[in-house]
From TrEMBL:
<protein>
    <recommendedName>
        <fullName>B30.2/SPRY domain-containing protein</fullName>
    </recommendedName>
</protein>
<dbReference type="Pfam" id="PF13765">
    <property type="entry name" value="PRY"/>
</dbReference>
<keyword id="KW-0325">Glycoprotein</keyword>
<dbReference type="InterPro" id="IPR003879">
    <property type="entry name" value="Butyrophylin_SPRY"/>
</dbReference>
<dbReference type="InterPro" id="IPR003877">
    <property type="entry name" value="SPRY_dom"/>
</dbReference>
<dbReference type="InterPro" id="IPR043136">
    <property type="entry name" value="B30.2/SPRY_sf"/>
</dbReference>
<dbReference type="InterPro" id="IPR006574">
    <property type="entry name" value="PRY"/>
</dbReference>
<dbReference type="Pfam" id="PF00622">
    <property type="entry name" value="SPRY"/>
</dbReference>
<dbReference type="InterPro" id="IPR013320">
    <property type="entry name" value="ConA-like_dom_sf"/>
</dbReference>
<dbReference type="InterPro" id="IPR001870">
    <property type="entry name" value="B30.2/SPRY"/>
</dbReference>
<dbReference type="InterPro" id="IPR050143">
    <property type="entry name" value="TRIM/RBCC"/>
</dbReference>
<feature type="domain" description="B30.2/SPRY">
    <location>
        <begin position="24"/>
        <end position="217"/>
    </location>
</feature>
<dbReference type="InterPro" id="IPR037958">
    <property type="entry name" value="SPRY/PRY_BTN1/2"/>
</dbReference>
<dbReference type="GO" id="GO:0016020">
    <property type="term" value="C:membrane"/>
</dbReference>
<keyword id="KW-1015">Disulfide bond</keyword>
Length: 217
């Protein structure tokens, strides 16, 4: 279902890891390390079994769009039936990974990760206490979905967001790839189980989100 590409090791430029000396490349946020640290670019794809009926996935499962009405899909306990959400593969249980999402002309969205076993039926609150670590763009404002929510101040609107997961450290960070700036970091300490990429659109305010292909090693 998924694969990963090793992109750096010892002394090379790496996608951002916390507590290190930051440098930036034109294509992705990078770091230079003196230690032997391995980072993987996750080849994230969307999981149709989890997609809300109003969401339409592309054939390659990399783009999600809000439809005008809900589709007639089989009932599935994995599927979100209240919020228009969809999860991604891979399911992560260890390691450091990053992926990028193209958000240009996307309208409103939530992006981040969630526990593999989050509630998908009924009333859902996107917050860390319920197993979600995400940021939001809605009505021209950016928010970290903490408790309470915290508004983020960005110098420039991103067209692409990089999501960087450090599983063992319980940390997930978000980066604006337009001006190569840090947006927000959740320091959870422990995720208490496997996590997955998380995507949400807003039925009357969203267009589409596109997952960028992982760079080749």
């Amino acid at each position: 279902i998924w694969d990963i590409n090793k992109i750096s090791i010892r002394g090379k430029k790496l996608p951002l890891i916390s507590q290190a000396n930051t440098a930036v490349s034109a294509s992705r946020i990078t770091l230079i390390f003196s230690e032997n640290i391995i980072v993987f670019a996750a080849n994230v794809i969307l999981d149709p079994a989890t997609a809300h009926p109003a969401l339409i996935l592309s054939e390659e499962n990399r783009c999600v769009t809000c439809g005008e009405k809900s589709q007639d899909l089989p009932r599935d306990p994995q599927r979100f039936n209240s919020l228009p959400c969809v999860l991604g593969h891979p399911v992560v249980t260890s390691g450091r990974f990053y992926w990028e999402v193209d958000i240009r002309d996307s309208g409103a969205w939530d992006l981040g990760i969630c526990r593999h076993n989050v509630m998908r039926q009924g009333r859902i609150c996107v917050k860390p206490e319920d197993g979600f670590w995400a940021i939001r763009f809605y009505k021209d404002e950016y928010w970290a979905l903490t408790s309470p929510e915290m508004q983020l101040t960005l110098k420039e609107h991103p067209t692409r967001v990089c999501i960087f997961l450090e599983y063992e450290d319980g940390r997930i960070s978000f980066y604006n790839m337009t001006d190569e700036s840090h947006m927000h970091t959740f320091s959870q300490g422990s995720f208490n189980g496997s996590v997955r990429p998380f995507f949400r659109l807003w039925l009357n305010d969203s267009k589409h989100l596109t997952i960028c292909p992982a760079p080749k090693a």
